[in-house]
Amino acid sequence: MNKLLIEGGSRIGGTVRIAGAKNAALPILAATILAPGEHRIGNVPDLLDISSMLSLLGRIGCPSLLGSTLRLDTKRIVFCEAPYDLVRKMRASVLALGPLLARMGEAHVSLPGGCAIGVRPIDQHLKGLEAMGCRFELKAGYVHGWTDGLRGARIHLDVPTVTGTENILMAATLARGHTTIDNAAREPEIVDLACFLRSLGARIRGEGTQRIEVDGVETLSSSSRTFHVMPDRIEAGTYLVAAAITRGNVTITNVVPQHMQAILDALRQAGSHLEIADDSITLSHRGPVQPIDLVTSPYPGFPTDMQAQFMALLTLARGTSRITETIFENRFMHAAEFLRLGADLEISGNRVKINGVRELFGASLMATDLRASAGLVLAALASRGRSEVLRLYHLDRGYEKLVEKLQSLGARLRMVESENHSHHEQEPMVVNA
Ligand code: EPZ
Known about the structure:
Layout: E1 2-7, E2 13-17, H1 22-31, E3 38-42, H2 48-59, E4 64-66, E5 69-73, E6 81-82, H3 84-87, H4 97-104, E7 106-110, H5 123-131, E8 134-139, E9 142-147, E10 154-156, H6 162-172, E11 178-182, H7 188-199, E12 203-205, E13 211-215, E14 227-228, H8 233-245, E15 249-253, H9 261-269, E16 273-276, E17 280-284, E18 293-295, H10 307-314, E19 320-324, H11 333-340, E20 344-348, E21 351-355, E22 364-366, H12 370-381, E23 386-390, H13 393-398, H14 402-408, E24 412-417
Parallel strand pairs: 2-15, 3-14, 6-7, 10-11, 18-19, 22-23
Antiparallel strand pairs: 1-23, 1-24, 3-5, 4-5, 7-9, 8-9, 11-13, 12-13, 15-17, 16-17, 19-21, 20-21
The structure holds ligand EPZ.
């Protein structure tokens, strides 16, 4: 098992190109199931989660070729199962549920189960699909679904679930009649999915708002044009925080600033200086980090996927900050790791009070979930001395070439083979999406 050695203290500076969005590419890959044919998708990030989704598609009969443009052939589907050995590695496999039911009339998807950041139920996914005429049986850790044909329905989600909205939206494109999804999630990744579905012939309105309307069509077919996945707003935000926490100066390119308003506002409040162009952002941070209060909430609010990164930044603020996590019930594991670096944090329920300290000191750290591991790397970059981060597969799942990109920005870090292979480094049962 590898570990990351980080020598803290260097300012990061330079330019980095942001990759395609993992959380747009995953539903878009699942959506190709709906449309028999050869699909060409560009700007797909080179991540473990993407290869897991391609393995799942391969398993059901859809071969793919990953190059600068991903080619995917979904003419034939021979299995309707997303097996446990794949789903346990990536919860987003649940995104195969809606498309398989819509195309094949059945689906057998291993229940993703809980993960490091919470229980992660899929009750809203099932509620919406049942309203469209699916029936489900939960047995032996699998959700088995069947339908004699999907029909349009009026669905109101109890929570604006991102993948729940995506599963229901994908199924609705092939349902007979009109579907309305109320209290839908509004994330930009859902808008990107809707644009992809429209390129296959789907008829959708209202994506990005709380009400999405779909007129089902008989069939969908692959487009002759290459679809390019939107940039990853969380990767982009992570590099901006890296510049702020090291008092550096970084330009990120191939980004959509409009997707990042809440992140950019928080950075400004924390004292960063931002220059914003059409598809690039430059951040410089001189002087102290100002303390701020953050509450995570569904888009367009402050994203939960940026919470750990900002906690790292605020451990060094000049004053007291507060972070409230409203999306997941257990997304503060990184706080315990920051304490090992000398941070001064008080956790109570879903709130953390952060008393800024003057300096952090390198230590051994353990990553727990995808975004938390990025937060640990940022804190280590700003700590005095050497840190090591264990359980790095979390990083590889969500950040394309993180080490190389940070090295190109002047950070001093390298991957090394870690000597001990003790049991605790085994890959956990399930990691979050
Ligand atoms: C998506 O997860 C993202 N993953 C997550 O990113 C992200 O953190 C999350 O949305 C919130 O923005 C992908 O898009 C692949 P939710 P998802 O369903 O869809 C509850 C990353 O790091 N809920 O919006 O699983 C749920 O428990 C990952 O890339 C139900 O109660 O999140 C949670 O409290 C981590 N019933 C809240 O809704 C359901 O049926 C939001 O979850 C579904 C969800």
